[in-house]
Backbone:
């Protein structure tokens, strides 16, 4: 099935460090969502983006809708141990209304 | 406001059996989408229902089916289970279909032996 490219695939960081991850597509999307998933649970919505160039924050998290509408970025500032998990992006296709998900970025925070 | 609920949370079935999973969306939400999540394939879209009608379908065999009731609750059914159907099945709901947040339930972990 179709998936968006997310990078990095996984990362170890020290507590207090900033984290950046991105999601790229060959298609244009009109909506980008970012989720965090803990083991055995469903993804939790972090941030929603609706306009090219839009920058939205949710606490220590900031996400941007790329101006080409083919990519999106998520930054986490001053990471803490509870940031551990898998982060997914999802883009909504304007033709089909389907959400297509990224391959995920697994974040591990070292205290 | 209560979140998306899914029942059961865990299920073990044998090859060849069938299974029905249930999803209750957030109150007021009319769109329900189903996804299959596996380590190898990630999150794959199964189908979407809006106002009791299937609006979208992913690339899954006909053994996978679903429906939505007038109260927006949804069920998905998998017939003639195969080992490869073992996965986390996630349901997500949204108020509308377009340019709107989609919220997930906790999932149903299905194991086929």
Residues:
């Amino acid at each position: 099935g179709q998936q968006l490219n997310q990078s990095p695939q996984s990362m170890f960081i020290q507590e207090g460090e900033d984290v950046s991850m991105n999601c790229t597509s060959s298609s244009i999307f009109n909506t980008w969502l970012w989720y965090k998933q803990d083991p055995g649970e469903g993804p939790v919505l972090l941030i929603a983006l609706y306009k090219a160039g839009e920058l939205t924050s949710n606490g220590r998290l900031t996400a941007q809708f790329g101006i080409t509408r083919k990519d999106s970025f998520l930054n986490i500032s001053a990471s803490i141990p509870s940031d551990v998990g898998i982060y997914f992006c999802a883009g909504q296709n304007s033709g089909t209304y389907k959400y297509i998900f990224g391959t995920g970025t697994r974040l591990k925070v070292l205290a | 406001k209560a979140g998306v609920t899914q029942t059961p949370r865990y299920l073990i079935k044998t090859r060849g059996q069938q299974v029905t999973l249930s999803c209750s969306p957030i109150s007021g939400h009319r769109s329900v989408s189903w996804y299959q999540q596996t380590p190898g394939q990630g999150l794959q879209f199964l189908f979407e229902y809006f106002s009791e009608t299937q609006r979208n379908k992913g690339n899954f065999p006909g053994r996978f089916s679903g429906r939505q009731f007038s109260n927006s609750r949804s069920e998905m059914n998998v017939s003639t289970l195969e080992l490869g159907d073992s996965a986390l099945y996630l349901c997500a709901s949204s108020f509308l279909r377009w340019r709107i947040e989609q919220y997930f339930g906790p999932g149903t972990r299905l194991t086929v032996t």
